[in-house]
Inverse folding.
């Protein structure tokens, strides 16, 4: 299993994804589950997108993500888990999965003074489903960044920190993508 931490990824990248087409192609041999792909986007339109309903759907999406991860581990299938995992919270569900696998964590992060404006700009462009209410979430994002909830997860696994805020106009990874891929696939 490759356990990819994307804590506050949406905020850091401004485009909603911590990977590009290259990484998707390079990791295609692993099952990839992105929490936001389900059930919010499919059920949100049918059940409504009030803040309370959307929060319930988000919780259900995480529960489904963790259940699928456990089932894939049971089946001996490798995977990439991608989501906004939060330090001090997400470890409770991920630790039992990680304990049964060869896991690594790739944590995409950066400077709050770059992350918050990127997040705000993306919210103002309206790129995500209306249920996300990204502008209203900015104070929570700032709190998470200030209190360390967006730091790498506290798991006893190899962790690679990727700074996605090196360039202010173009997403740039430090270390480079090839080095990230080498970290993920080492001893695979």
């Amino acid at each position: 299993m490759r356990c990819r931490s994307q804590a506050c990824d949406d905020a850091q990248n401004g485009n909603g994804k911590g990977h590009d087409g290259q990484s998707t192609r390079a990791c295609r041999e692993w099952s990839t589950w992105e929490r936001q792909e389900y059930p919010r986007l499919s059920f949100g339109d049918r059940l409504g997108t009030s803040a309370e309903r959307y929060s319930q759907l988000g919780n259900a999406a995480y529960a489904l993500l963790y259940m699928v991860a456990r089932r894939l581990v049971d089946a001996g299938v490798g995977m990439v888990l991608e989501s906004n995992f939060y330090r001090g919270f997400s470890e409770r569900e991920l630790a039992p999965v990680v304990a049964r696998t060869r896991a690594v964590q790739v944590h995409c992060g950066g400077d709050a003074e770059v992350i918050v404006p990127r997040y705000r700009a993306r919210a103002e462009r309206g790129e995500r489903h209306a249920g996300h209410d990204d502008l209203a979430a900015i104070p929570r994002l700032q709190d998470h960044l200030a209190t360390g909830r967006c730091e790498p997860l506290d798991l006893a696994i190899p962790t690679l920190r990727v700074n996605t805020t090196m360039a202010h106009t173009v997403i740039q990874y430090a270390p480079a993508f090839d080095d990230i891929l080498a970290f993920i696939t080492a001893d695979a």
